[in-house]
Design goal:
This protein is of the alpha/beta class. The chain has one domain: NADP-dependent oxidoreductase domain (TIM Barrel), CATH 3.20.20.100. It is about 40% helix and about 15% strand. An 8-stranded parallel β-barrel has the order 3-4-5-6-7-8-9-10, surrounded by 5 helices. Strands 1-2 form a two-stranded antiparallel ribbon. β7, α5 and β8 form a beta-alpha-beta unit. The longest helix is centred in the N-terminal third of the chain and has 15 residues. It is globular and about 50 Å long.
């Protein structure tokens, strides 16, 4: 396993992070989910990402059980706050002081830990003054409940404002968690340059584009049974943006490149995001332990400039680059 510094901090994280967004407490039975976490640990992964909103708090509980017995200092646990949890009352979402302070305690209880290594604002809250949010995060850090602060899917302007306030308050905002893959490159124009300037790393989600970059979806072919594209609990909705024939055809064109490198398409895709020096870690999920073991092989793979150029030629024309997509996906209210 390769380890990288997270932002301008002394914290090192594994280049592959295990995440339990669409699996634990939802798509995968708890016993299998725990087996996947054990496989991640066996493969050298030390970083684990979750959120209170995943399966309405159940994912955190599963991860807490799966990590029971591990030496706490030997793993990095990341969780997030923003989305609605519980009965979804008026203060059960967002980044108000009330929601943050209540949510961190709930997350720690479910994760069975005294602190998280990274506490992330899952989205930007337009209904709460940023000053209130960052002050609450500073208090969480000073109380020892989180070591560092991060965000997820913030725009370049939001990152700059949040980082400035964090610095004034004497805490470290060191990471952003955006979607990033060969097919979704919207951070490259604005978010990435600002992040480099501010000392913020990316912990990227969906490096294999919800499974599309594995090549298992062929243009014109029936959807594989049990695949994410057939999941009616959220997976199908997330993946549909990539389920176009031109995209699926381009993905198949990556196979010769992967074969020459002795990689499968998922490994090639993860190695591609990790070739970006602003990416500290790529989050992988899994529905079975063998997927974890396979995907970890991408850590440490070096793609030559020639290989990167060939990848761009094959798939670059169907990728999304527009930085406005980050702004468009930012919630317009706490409930959206």
């Amino acid at each position: 396993m390769e380890f990288r510094y997270l932002g301008n901090s002394g914290l090192k994280v594994s280049a592959i992070t295990y995440g339990n967004w669409l699996t634990h407490g939802s798509q995968v039975e708890n016993a299998t989910a725990i087996e996947c976490v054990r496989a991640a640990l066996d493969a050298g992964i030390t970083s684990f990402d979750t959120a209170d909103v995943y399966a309405n708090t159940v994912a955190e509980k599963v991860l807490g059980r799966a990590l029971k017995g591990e030496r706490r200092a030997s793993v990095e646990i990341f969780t997030k706050v923003f989305g609605p949890t519980g009965p979804k009352g008026p203060n059960d979402s967002g980044l108000s002081r009330k929601h943050i302070m209540e949510s961190i305690d709930g997350s720690l209880r479910r994760l069975k830990t005294d602190y998280v290594d990274l506490y992330q604002a899952h989205r930007y809250d337009v209904e709460t003054p940023l000053e209130e949010t960052m002050q609450a995060f500073a208090d969480v850090v000073r109380q020892g409940k989180a070591l560092y602060i991060g965000v997820s899917e913030w725009t370049a302007d939001q990152l700059r404002a949040g980082h400035a306030l964090a610095s004034e308050l004497g805490i470290q905002l060191i990471s952003n968690q955006p979607q990033y893959s060969m097919l979704w490159r919207v951070i490259e124009a604005e978010v990435e340059p600002v992040s480099r300037e501010l000392g913020i790393s990316q912990i990227v989600w969906s490096p294999i584009a919800q499974g599309v970059l594995t090549g298992k979806y062929a243009p014109g072919a029936p959807l594989p049974e049990g695949s994410r594209a057939t999941d009616d609990k959220g997976g199908a909705n997330m993946i549909k943006r990539f389920m176009r024939d031109d995209v699926l055809t381009a993905v198949q064109g990556l196979r010769p490149i992967a074969d020459e490198l002795g990689l499968d398409l998922a490994q090639l895709s993860i190695a591609w995001v990790l070739r970006n020096s602003n990416v500290a870690s790529a989050i992988i999920g899994a529905s079975r332990p063998s997927q974890v073991t396979s995907n970890v092989a991408a850590a440490g793979v070096v793609l030559s400039a020639e290989t990167q150029s060939r990848i761009d030629t094959v798939i670059g024309h169907v990728a999304e680059y527009d930085p406005a997509r980050t702004r468009e996906s930012s919630p317009k209210s706490r409930e959206s």
